[in-house]
Amino acid sequence: NVGCVPKKLFVYGSHYKHDCHDARFFGWDAMSPGDLNWPALIANKDKEIARLNGIYERLLSNAGAELIPGRAKLTGAHSVEVAGKTYTADKILIATGSWPSIPDIPGKELVISSNEAFYLPKLPKKVIIVGGGYIAVEFAGIFSGYGSDVSLVYRGGLFLRGFDEDARKFVAEQYTARGIDLRFNANIAKVEKNDDGSLLATYEDGSQMTADTIMYATGRLPKTKNLGLEEVGVKMGKKGEVIVNEYSQTNIENIYCVGDATDRMNLTPIALAEGHCFADTEFGDNVRIASYDLVPTTIFCQPPLGTCGLTEAEARAKFGDEDVVIFKSSFKPLKHTLTDSPERAFYKLIVQKSTDKVVGAHLCEASAGEVIQLMGVAMKAGATKRNFDETIGVHPTSVCDLFAAVSACLLLVFNFARFSSSACLRACIRFLSLLLIRIFLASCLSLCPKGGGARHDAHAV
């Protein structure tokens, strides 16, 4: 109800204002987004979520599962109480997820989390988002796309900690170009309500800012309180996470836990995979565990950031500088060669030199979510950089257009030089051509490998 699907619906909707603007460059003079009907968005989103919930309920019912509405509490290793009635089972699976965590500051009751953001009665004109994780970054893009004046506040030097450094910087540049106010190394000390109903945020440095809405996305904690876990003896961590082994089994042999409540890798598909492995192992005569290696994922910022495998820092720490080669590129997507949009695209491959295996992939562009999913399959299969190079590109697409443009440029200028009558002219043309190509590669492709003094060879290029 307040997770990935409604978030993605909001992301879709936030694009239309820009799409209508861009349409003018493709000949659609009368295109205009008109007035935003925010309540219609919320109502349509709620309708779709209700439809999906209904599908899930029918799938469970049709499979023979008994659905028991209510809040459950463990009363024993094999017993659960719901609405005063006790149910027993051979095995118990906990899958309660996580919940937004808001720091204890003065005025905490005046701010919202991502949960409430899905039900706002109207679009805020000015919104402050506090946090540096994917939820904060995604909602900054959402609100900005719909037309809000957005300030994103993060206590660290750069948001999206844990992601590749180049990718983080690229997203920050794109957000700044979109007019989002990024305030790094900053934090709010307190929040007060003004007489007109607006909110006054006072920063730790004493500066102040007024906003209609202040949203905190400063982390999530496992939703495990008041489930009776402590009383039953289930081991838990400092944040309330349930401690499990590789089979999602707790210290009590018949009690299991999957998903965000374990605070392992907090992604919806990972929770599904852990649950599937539990079902296969315990009831399907197919013992297996979830894999947390080479997991493709996407932050639906604008443009989206897809990532799979190691960051550059992780690769260098694991293999050493001499065994890591970096290939990266930043360029204007074909679509925006006709528009005045500042949007650019970013691709980065991290390769282990000794094996030629692609160990990390990071891309920031409109179709990143779809592309990184397929790249994840290739990387799981052990794809090498040569495999990527030898695969015929789909034209016209971003990567294909880049390499096709370089090939065409080389062919054109050298053939022109070859058939010119004057030796001096040919020499001048070759010099200017090489200079032009060098500038083109440096400014548009930035494909020089970094690490271990590695040089380009034919298949690396």
Written overview of the protein:
The chain is α+β, with helices and mostly antiparallel strands. The chain is built from 13 helices and 19 strands. The strands form 6 sheets. A 5-stranded antiparallel β-sheet has the order 15-16-19-18-17, with helices on both faces. A 4-stranded parallel β-sheet has the order 8-7-6-12, covered by helices on one side. It has a 3-stranded antiparallel β-sheet with strand order 1-2-3. The radius of gyration is 26 Å and the shape is globular. The protein starts with a helix and ends in a 16-residue tail after the last helix.
How many helices?
Answer: 13
How large a portion of the residues is in β-strands, by DSSP E? 15-25%
Helix content bin: 25-40%
Cα(first) to Cα(last) distance is: 46 Å
The overall strand count is 19
Largest sheet: 5 strands, antiparallel
**What structural category do the secondary elements indicate?**
alpha+beta
Mean pLDDT: 89
Low-confidence runs of at least 5 consecutive residues: 401-422, 431-461
- Tell me the radius of gyration: 26 Å
Q: Main sheet: which strands, in order across?
A: 15-16-19-18-17
Shape: globular
Offer a few descriptive terms.
single chain, 461 residues, alpha+beta, five-stranded antiparallel beta sheet, 13 helices, 19 strands, globular, disordered C terminus
What's this model, at a glance?
By secondary structure, this protein is of the alpha+beta class. The chain has helices at 4-14, 16-23, 38-62, 114-117, 134-146, 165-177, 229-232, 268-283, 312-319, 368-380, 385-390, 398-419, 423-445, and strands at residues 72-76, 79-82, 85-88, 92-94, 98-100, 126-130, 149-154, 181-184, 188-193, 199-203, 208-211, 213-216, 220-222, 255-257, 297-299, 305-309, 324-331, 345-352, 357-364. Helix 1 (4-14) packs antiparallel against helix 3 (38-62) and helix 1 packs parallel to helix 5 (134-146).
